Structures are given as structure tokens and as C-alpha cells.
């Protein structure tokens, strides 16, 4: 139960703010800082009753097909920050394109 009740338009606005904040957390290079920021974000979302979801993207190595799963994150399942490695297989290795 949310501590602060919001009107629908206010909740939509807060969801956008939380999405932007999550992007900031995901950009952190330092695990400790990211975990602290994630905890602040989770706690704040709970205060306003903002639904938290985890998006899981998996690629089939044989076909290259993507499977996208969206699941609701319950209070007891709130995840800690997990760094994500972004890989571009088409990008050249070195400055001149060599390894």
C-alpha cells in the first residue's frame, strides 16, 4: 500500500521520473553507488505505489531471435542493481578497426 496516494496523471508523471532515475542508476560504473541508488529508487517507488517491473531480454544464440519477458517486481523480490554488458558485435575492436 502506498504511503502517498496520487491521481492518475500525477502517477504517470512520477512513473516517468522513476524511469529516468532508473536509467541513471543503470549507467553507474561503481557497484556500491549503483546499489545505494537502486535502494533509494526502490524505497521511493514503494512510497508512491509505483509498480516496478523487470525487463529480461534473452537472445537465442542459434537464431538470434529475442525473447522479452516483463515481470512485476514484488516488495520481497526487489532486485539489487545488476550491471548489464552491452555488446555490439559489428563494432571494430581497435581505433583502426584492428584487434
Characterize the structure shown.
- The protein has 99 residues and is an alpha+beta fold.
- Helices cover 36% and strands 16% of the residues.
- The protein has helices at residues 8-26, 31-47; strands at residues 52-59, 66-73.
- A hairpin with a 6-residue loop joins strand 1 (52-59) and strand 2 (66-73).
- Helix 1 (8-26) packs antiparallel against helix 2.
- The radius of gyration is 17 Å and the shape is extended.
Distance between the termini: 54 Å
Q: What average pLDDT do the residues reach?
A: 82
Continuous helix count: 2
Structural class: alpha+beta
What low-confidence regions span 5 or more consecutive residues with pLDDT below 50?
none
Percent range of helical residues: 25-40%
List how many beta strands DSSP finds: 2
Shape: extended
Strand content is 15-25%
Oligomer: single chain
Radius of gyration: 17 Å
Main sheet attributes: strand count, strand direction, barrel closure: 2 strands, antiparallel
Question: In short, what is this structure?
Answer:
This protein has 99 residues and is α+β, with helices and mostly antiparallel strands. The protein is 36% helix and 16% strand. It starts with 7 loop residues before the first helix and ends in a 26-residue tail after the last strand.
Overview features:
single chain, 99 residues, alpha+beta, two-stranded antiparallel sheet, 2 helices, 2 strands, 16% strand, extended
Amino acid at each position: 500500500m502506498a504511503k502517498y496516494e496520487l491521481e492518475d496523471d500525477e502517477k504517470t508523471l512520477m512513473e516517468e521520473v522513476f524511469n529516468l532515475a532508473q536509467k541513471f542508476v543503470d549507467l553507474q560504473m561503481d557497484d556500491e553507488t549503483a546499489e545505494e541508488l537502486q535502494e533509494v529508487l526502490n524505497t521511493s517507488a514503494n512510497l508512491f505505489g509505483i509498480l516496478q517491473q523487470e525487463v529480461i531480454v534473452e537472445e537465442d544464440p542459434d537464431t538470434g531471435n529475442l525473447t522479452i519477458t516483463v515481470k512485476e517486481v514484488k516488495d520481497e523480490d526487489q532486485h539489487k542493481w545488476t550491471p548489464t554488458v552491452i555488446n555490439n558485435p559489428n563494432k571494430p575492436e581497435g581505433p583502426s578497426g584492428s584487434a
